[in-house]
Amino acid sequence: MRGSADALVAELRGAVSDERVLSAVRSVPRDAFVPPDLRAEAWDNMPLPIGCGQTISQPLVVARMCELLELRGTERVLDVGTGSGYHAALLSRLAAHVYSIELHAELSERAATCLAAALVTNVTLVVGDGSAGLPEHAPFDAINVAAAAPGAVPGALVAQLAPGGRLVGPVDDGDQRLVLLRRGRDGFERSEHERVRFVPLVSG
Questions:
Q1: CATH of the domain at 101
Q2: Which structural domain range is residue 141 located in?
Q3: 187 within some domain
């Protein structure tokens, strides 16, 4: 399986240059986060169904989102849309602590099992409305949104960014693209990146 992880990293290297992110992809066992009947495909660069109408995202997209956040290992991160827990696991290798929120209790419980199997200990799982974030734990140095917001990133999430903080997530205004917001002293910088396809961000 390690050879398969190496092959995936080699495939991603053309689009992802952050070596810390590539190392995280190599070290996190993606096969632990997919349903048993799909484990033969776990290291393929493709999304896979995980139940509740959700997917484990394509590794390339997950890696690019992690790269755009420019994590250095000291950050507190909010992960919106736990899903399988795979994205949170990668973030856990790149930051100090991750708070991950999921609307579906069933997925959150399954993610807890998967994260434990992957020996991840610095992720706190919460069941709730991801579009509202976790104001009780804010501010966050980085926010990862793994579901498509219609038109714009929810204001509640933007408000929970610390000074200098970064937020990455898909925005759907008829054409889904990754959007990066960076909080500066004089407001927010916004940049658009590659086209993606995510499930909609649903309020609880």
A1: 3.40.50.150
A2: 2-195
A3: yes
Q: Which residues contact 6 (CB under 8 A, 6 or more apart)?
A: 26
* Known catalytic membership, residue 57: yes
Amino acid at 74: T
C-alpha to C-alpha distance for 23 and 13, rounded to whole angstroms: 11
Nearest CA-CA partner of 89 in 46, 123, 126:
123
Q: Flag whether 201 is in a domain.
A: no
Count CB atoms within 10 A of the CB of residue 16: 19
Residues whose CB falls within 8 Å of the CB of residue 62, separated by 6 or more in sequence, listed in order: 25, 86, 87, 90
Considering the entire predicted model, what is its pTM?
Answer: 0.95
Q: Looking at the domain assignment, is residue 94 inside a domain?
A: yes
Q: How many CA atoms lie within 13 A of 177 on its CB side?
A: 13
Tokens of 198: 């995510």
Q: Which of 57, 84, 100, 131 is catalytic?
A: 57
Question: How many separate domains does the chain show?
Answer: 1
Per-residue pLDDT of the chain (204 residues; tens, 9 = 90+): 444 899 999 999 999 999 999 999 999 999 999 999 999 999 999 999 998 889 999 999 999 999 999 999 999 999 999 999 999 999 999 999 999 999 999 999 999 999 999 999 999 999 999 999 999 999 999 999 999 999 999 999 999 999 999 999 999 988 999 999 999 988 999 999 999 999 889 876
